[in-house]
Design goal:
TIM Barrel; 18 strands
């Protein structure tokens, strides 16, 4: 049996599979299908310093090989999470990653302070719109990435993962900015910006007009970006974007990811995370690879 343990910024996961933030809630629904202890880590839905209602519906739309969402980071806020959800999650033998969001840098700093060391890692969601910059996402500007990473890192009591937005011209530049700001690890990609129009009503299907595209449709973009980021920085990488099978996950590992996150696939198949984990292990055994870490970044380019 191949060794499946991975080390992400000093935190040991029992296997390289986690959940994509926003697709797993706080895990209660999926725990009815499998024990959360089976996962290397659980990345929770976004948390803000104060509760958020999210966007009006419709906020999900199906597209070929994917979905568009504009849920709007609906969550009960850090305080309610710490009181109600965290004690329940702590019964499982898995690492917990809190995804942090906000509308200003101060918001992010506040939620990081509120969370303290209650979880094992933070993931900084820099695809949030920055209200002070007219709604432009934090993650589309390298200077802003470095600044927000630096400020959250200064108060962070646990390793900090920065989640990169793919809606940029040069993903490597954004990765280097996060590294310069003191990020301990990177995760990518977040959703691609997309839109769907109902031709009968001539209106966008989503109430918010545009949303984030996820699912198999984004996978080739995600694999390419993970490869480019691996060439640019030394930090551990959690790769994500359209992973539905173990083979998909292996592509990300070969491209340079140290671990993978499965998200949209779980909406179709609630066992997707366990299946992907088992299929990674089967691939390693079939190819006589003793340790999952041995294939990281081992793509052979032409």
């Amino acid at each position: 049996m191949a060794e499946m343990k991975v080390n992400i910024a000093g935190v040991e996961w029992k296997n390289p599979v986690t959940t994509g933030s926003g697709t797993f809630g706080f895990g209660r629904e999926y725990n009815e299908y499998f024990n959360l202890s089976e996962l290397g880590a659980v990345c929770l839905k976004a948390l803000s310093a104060v509760p958020r209602l999210g966007n009006p519906s419709p906020r999900i739309a199906e597209t070929p090989k994917g979905i568009l969402n504009s849920v709007g980071l609906q969550n009960p806020g850090a305080e309610v999470f710490l009181e109600r959800e965290l004690p329940w999650l702590r019964q499982f033998d898995t690492k917990l990653i809190a995804n942090l969001c906000g509308s200003t840098i101060e918001d992010y700093v506040k939620v990081a302070e509120m969370m303290g060391d209650s979880v094992d890692m933070f993931e900084l969601n820099i695809s949030c719109p920055n209200v002070k910059e007219g709604g432009m996402a934090f993650g589309t500007n390298a200077k802003m990435i470095e600044e927000i990473t630096q400020k959250v890192k200064a108060v962070s009591k646990v390793p900090l993962i920065v989640k990169l937005s793919p809606n940029v011209t040069d993903i490597a530049e954004m990765a280097r900015a996060a590294e310069a700001g003191g990020a301990d690890a990177l995760s990518l990609i977040n959703t691609l910006f997309g839109m769907k129009i109902d031709v009968k009503t001539r209106r966008p299907v989503l109430y918010n007009n545009m949303g984030g595209l996820s699912g198999p449709a984004v996978k080739p973009v995600a694999v390419r970006m993970v490869y480019q980021v691996r060439q640019a920085v030394k930090l551990p990488i959690i790769g994500m974007g359209g992973i539905t099978t173990g083979e998909d996950a292996i592509e990300f590992l070969l491209a340079g990811a140290n671990a993978v996150a499965v998200g949209t696939a779980g909406i179709v198949d609630p066992y997707a995370w366990i299946r992907v984990r088992d299929e990674i292990e089967a691939y390693l055994d079939e190819n006589h690879i003793k340790d999952v870490n041995d294939i990281v970044g081992m793509v052979e380019m032409h």
